[in-house]
Every structure is written in C-alpha cells, then in structure tokens.
Amino acid sequence: MGFEIAGSRFRPARMAVIVWVALTAIFWGNIFRFHPSMIDGVYDGTSEASVVGRLARAAADGFFRNTDLGVNLDPQHPNSDLYNYQREVRYFEHPELIHSLGLDWAPYPSHFALQGYVFAAIDLIDPLPRSIRIPFYHLLASLFTAGMLVWMAAILRSKFGWAAFIGFLLPAAVEPMFSGLARR
After folding, report:
1. The predicted structure's pLDDT at residue 95
2. Are residues 107 and 85 in the same domain?
3. Which range of residues forms the domain containing residue 108?
C-alpha cells in the first residue's frame, strides 16, 4: 500500500530510500552547521582525534598492531594538546611521518574501538587518495546513521502508519545534534 502524492503512487520502500538519501544529505552536509560544543561550550574531541589516530597508526604499522583507539604522541613535545584533531589528520594523510618523527602511541582504551576497527579495515581497501578519505568516511557514517533511523521509522510505519514514520523522522531531520554527530 502506498499513498498518493501529486498523482503518483509511492511505495513504502521507495519512500524509505528517498528519505534515507535526504537524511544522509542533511547529516553529511551538516546543513545546520552544528558542532557538539555549541551545547555548553565543552566538547571532548578525543573521540574524533582517537579514531583518526587509530587510522593513521593502522596505515603506518598495519591493521593488527595498536588496536585500541588512540593518538600519536610527539615525545619532543609531551605537553602539547594530546588530542589535536588537525595533527592526527596530518599523520593520517602522511602515515610515513609517524616513524620518521619517532611518534609514540598513546592508547585511549576506555573506548570500545569498534569504529576504529571498521574504518581501519575500510581504509585498507580504500582506493581514494588519503586527503579525501575522511570526508568519505563521514559520508559512510552519515549513510549508516540515516539508514538506521529510516529502518526504525519503517518499523513504526508498519505498525502505526505513515504518521508514525513522519513523526519519528521529521524531528531527527531538523534536530541539529543529529547533523552534528551523525557524521562522526
């Protein structure tokens, strides 16, 4: 069963795919320009830096070494900002710097590290240039987040109708926190 929009008949699967693509565009593009630190002025950026640090270390040492999330620590500057995201991106884009600069590994073991494993595995087979891989991984995370939300909304639609589908997804589409966190 579908419903009529301007004379055409949309099937639930087709509508779910359209909404999935729209939500992915909202999340990946972060159209609300939201960043989690806007809530209270405090945001722990360790998760972003530690995932990228894990990707850089996997590119330099291989997938199965240093399997925790973490960051690459410069022993010459131990008091510098440990979880500097831009520095980890630089090491990710140029993994040869990890050994040439003699960087140590500072694990962050309180994270589950599944995100680091998944993206490090994808990174092993990714043919894209290293400079555009992180935006590509943001796209993958946005696709996954939007897909899970649409999947939950489809379950609600099958039980309660289209009002539940729309009522579940509309707040998710306009909630700035989702667009700020879905791609991370």
Report:
1. 92
2. yes
3. 46-131
Instruction: Give the pLDDT of residue 64.
Output: 76
- The HSE-up count of residue 35 (CA atoms within 13 Å, CB side) is 8
Same domain? 18 vs 88: no
Q: Please check whether residues 119 and 58 belong to one and the same domain.
A: yes
Residues 72 and 83: their CA atoms lie apart, in Å, by: 9
How many Å apart are CA 63 and CA 85, to the nearest integer?
21
pTM of the full predicted structure? 0.74
Residues 80 and 121 in one domain: yes
Cβ proximity of 23 and 169 under 8 Å: yes
Q: Where are the alpha helices (DSSP H) in the chain?
A: 12-29, 46-61, 85-93, 96-100, 114-125, 133-160, 162-174, 176-181
Question: Distance (Å, rounded) from C-alpha 81 to C-alpha 61?
Answer: 23
Is residue 72 domain-shared with residue 124, that is, in the same domain?
yes
Distance CA 38, CA 45 (A): 13
Looking at residue 154, its pLDDT comes to: 94
Q: How many CB atoms lie within 10 A of CB 10?
A: 15
Mark the ranges of the chain whose per-residue pLDDT is less than 70.
1-10, 30-46, 66-67, 110-113, 115-116, 176-184
Domain count across the chain:
2
Residues 100, 55 share a domain: yes
